[in-house]
Amino acid sequence: MVRLGFIIGFIALLGALLSGLAAYRVHDQELALDRIALARAIDVHASLVQDRLTERELLARVASGLFRAPSVIKPNMLEPLRSAIYAFKTDFVVAGWVARLKPNELLPAEDAIASAGFPNPQIRTYDDKPIDLAKVTQPIDVLMDLEPRSNETKALPGRSYEQDQVRSAMLTRARVEKRSVASDPVQLLRGGGPIGIIVAAPVIPEGATEPAGFVTFSYELASLMLTNDDMSLFSVALKDPRREGGELVANDQGVVSSRMTAADGPAPSATRTVSFGGRDWHLGYYAKTNSARRAEQTAIIVAAIGFAITAMVCGLFGYVAYNNLRLSREIQVRIGFERRLTAVIDELNHRVKNILAVIQSIVTRTLRHGSDIDVARELLIGRIHAMSNVVSLLSESQWQGVKLKGLFEARAIPHADRIAVTGPDIAVSARAAQSLSLLFFELASHSDEGLSLVGKHPHITANWTVTGEGTDEVFHFRWEEFNTSEATRRPDSDFGLILLDRVAPEALGGTAKRYFTDASYVYELTAPMETVVDMSERDRTDKISAPVRPVR
C-alpha cells in the first residue's frame, strides 16, 4: 500500500508539473500567435489600402490624360470620359471638371453651365454667395461639370473654389507641381456631409505650360480606409493632418468622425504609412482584443484540463492498481498472475485512451478559433464535469455499467429538477454511458431556462422504451422540451450539433433526429439494445474483476 500511494503521488506530481508546463507554453504560444496574426493582418490591410489608393489616383491621372476639349467653357465637358471613368471604378462620390477661367470667360461659362442643364449657372463662391464678376482680375477655378448628376449634385456647378481653403490649397498645389494632388479630409457635397478626400489631376493642353483646369474625384474616407470589416482583429484610424493629436475613425455604419487622442490613452498597436495624392497618410491600428488576457485565460483552462486529466488518471490507476494488488495476494500461480496483469493493463490503456480521445475532442471543438472565451469555458467545464460524473458512476459499479436514470442526477445535468424521467431502469454499458451522459448534458444545457411550467406538466420530459425480443430488441429514447420554438430556444453549439446528429448515434449504432413541433423541441434516438447494453464489454470486465482462484 505504501508503494501504491507513492506511485499515485508521483503520477499526481508529474501530472501537475506537465499541466503547469503545458499552460506556460500555451500562454507563450497564444501571445506569439496573436501578435503574428495581428501584424500579418495589419500588413495585408495596409497593402490593400495602398492598392486601393493607387487605383483611385491612377483613375484621376488616366482621366486627365484622356481629357481633350477644344474649350474650357464647353458644356458637358465630362461627356467623352463618362464611359471610361465608370468602367474603371464606380465608387467615387463625385467626379468633376474644374475649369481655370479668365475674367473674360466668366460670362460665357455661365451660359455653358445653363445650357448643360444645371439649375444655378451663376458664378459664385463655394458657400453660394454671389461674386461681382466685374471685380475679378485674376483667373479663378470654377466647377463646370460633374458626374453623377442627381438632385443633390446638380446645384454644385458654378461654384468657385477660390474661397474654400481646403479645395483652393489642393488646386494650387496641383497647378504648381503639375501632378495629381489629394486634399485634406473635407466634408463632401454639403456642410455636414460625409467626410472624404478629393484628388485633383491637372489637365495641361498640348504646348501649354499652365493647366486649363482639373479633373477631380472625391471619395468617402471610410471606403478608402476599408474600415467596415466586423471580423477584423483591429480597428483602423487615420491621423488627422488638420490638427495635432486628431484621428479620423469610422463606426459600423461607415460614418467617419474626428476624435482627439489622450496622452495617457491607449496607443495604437501598429502604424503604417500609405501614399496618396503626392502625400503620406498615417494609419493607426488598435487591437480589438487583449492578447495577454486571452492568453492567460487559455493557459488557465489548459492547466485546469491537465489537473482534471491527472486526477482521472490517478483515480483510474489507483482503482485498478488496488484490485491488482488484492488479487495478486490470492494468486499462487505465476502464469495466471501475468495473464491477469496483462489483461488489466490492456483494458486500462483502452479506457484511458477512449477518455482522453473524448476529452481531446471536447476541448478541440469547444475551444475552436474565434470562440467566445467565457461561453467556451462554461461549456467546457460542464462537458468535462459530465464526463467526470459518468466515470465516477462507472467506478462505483466496477465498470459493469450505469443505471440509465442515474445519468440524470442534478450534479451533472443542468435543470435536472425540471426533467420528468420515465422508462425502465436499464443498465447501459460504459461506452454507451459516456455518449449518453454528454448527450443529456448538451440537451439540458441548451433548454429554455426562462420558460415556466404549464399546469402540472413539467417543462422537459425524457422517456425511453425497449421494444422487440431477443436479438431484435430496440432502444427508443425521446427528449421533448415544451413551450419552446426555434425562435426562442438557444441554438445548439457546433460541438452539440455534431454530438446530437453524428457522434452519439454512431457510438450506439443507431440513428437520431431532431425537430420542432408547434409547441416543443424534440430529439429522438433509436439504437439496438445489444449496443446499448453491450454484454461483451460487461463479460470482459467481469472476467478481469473476478477473483482468481488458486490452483489446487
TrEMBL record:
Presence of the UniProt keyword Transmembrane in the record: yes
Ranges for domain CHASE: 142-225
Domain of life: Bacteria
EC numbers for this chain: 2.7.13.3
Enzyme class: transferase
Pfam families the record matches: CHASE (PF03924), HWE_HK (PF07536)
Transmembrane residue ranges: 299-322
This protein's UniProt keywords: ATP-binding, Kinase, Membrane, Nucleotide-binding, Phosphoprotein, Transferase, Transmembrane, Transmembrane helix
Catalysis: reaction(s): ATP + protein L-histidine = ADP + protein N-phospho-L-histidine
Protein name: histidine kinase
Phylogenetic classification of the source organism: Bacteria, Pseudomonadati, Pseudomonadota, Alphaproteobacteria, Hyphomicrobiales
